Amino acid sequence: MGVEPPFFQKYKAILQSSAEKEKFSTIEVFEEFELPLIDLSGLNLGPFERQKCIEQMDKAAREWGFFQIVNHGIPGGLLDRLKYEQMKVFHLPFDKKAEKKFLNLSAHSYRWGNPLATSLRNLSWSEALHISLKDISRMDECNKLRSTIQEYARKANLLAQKLAEHLAQILGIKPNYFQENCSPSSSSLRMNRYPPCPFSSRMFGIIPHTDTDFLTILSQDQVGGLQFNTDGRWFSVKPNPKALVINIGDLFQALSNGIYKSITHRVAANEEVERYSIAYFYCPTDEVVIQSCSEPALYRNFSFKEYKEQIERDVKATGDKVGLSRFLW
């Protein structure tokens, strides 16, 4: 019984027609880019070092929407254990992963490809396990996966809250904003696997998108493939084995009144090797209303629930997420 999702069977028509039509339509990336690297140990030193560290995060969030962090407080051993459990889950037979109650999680927690794909360009060559943190307690204890995720989620939540509070400080947002509006169970975690892809020069591991949260904490392996777009140019992120990648999400862009940037990014497919990553999405509870922190506001007020429902409608109607532009005044 095979491990791989049946991409070739489900998307046969797309793969056969696109292979010839897009034969010479390769994906262009301009250059490899090393994201700003911020040493969070500066937060625990004197006032000067602390302020310098916060200003570095602020500058990166404004200019790039992405940065890397080291000395972040999440042990390397924990990240290694989580990846080990992640690999074991994804290497289960596909029929097992596709079961309705896989790991006793909500329906559609395990997902792969893109049911709305019409061409190679909007087909994601990947599989994922997307877990709402409120569901962790009911997970099957599958080879220590649940307990490892619980341990990681606790530390990732504290880290995300700390980063968000420091960024908010620059914007004049009250220090306890995130503590009041985000709970440990309102966030989610997504484990990704990118199988080797025979069409790697013409399609994506994950199609271009922005994240729907306040901010994302990404742990990735050394295969590489993360790319982001700025000023119409695509850059490939150089992997750093010692760092976590942080990126700003849509909600922080709206909250900051456009000062911080939620940047479109994607993952390139790889023809030869599989790639793994784990994303922690720091989110508020559904009823929280996002309001720009300054006037005149670029975006009208909206609840997190309203934002997610609008995305769902847009994806069903157009095959793609429209995002914040729906909420401009």
From TrEMBL:
PROSITE patterns: FE2OG_OXY. The lineage of its organism: Eukaryota, Viridiplantae, Streptophyta, Embryophyta, Tracheophyta. The keyword Metal-binding applies. The keyword Repeat does not apply. GO terms for molecular function: metal ion binding; oxidoreductase activity. This is Gibberellin 2-beta-dioxygenase 8. Belongs to the iron/ascorbate-dependent oxidoreductase family. Residues 185-284 form the Fe2OG dioxygenase domain. Residues 142-169 form a coiled coil. Keywords: Coiled coil, Iron, Metal-binding, Oxidoreductase. Pfam families: 2OG-FeII_Oxy, DIOX_N. It comes from the Eukaryota.
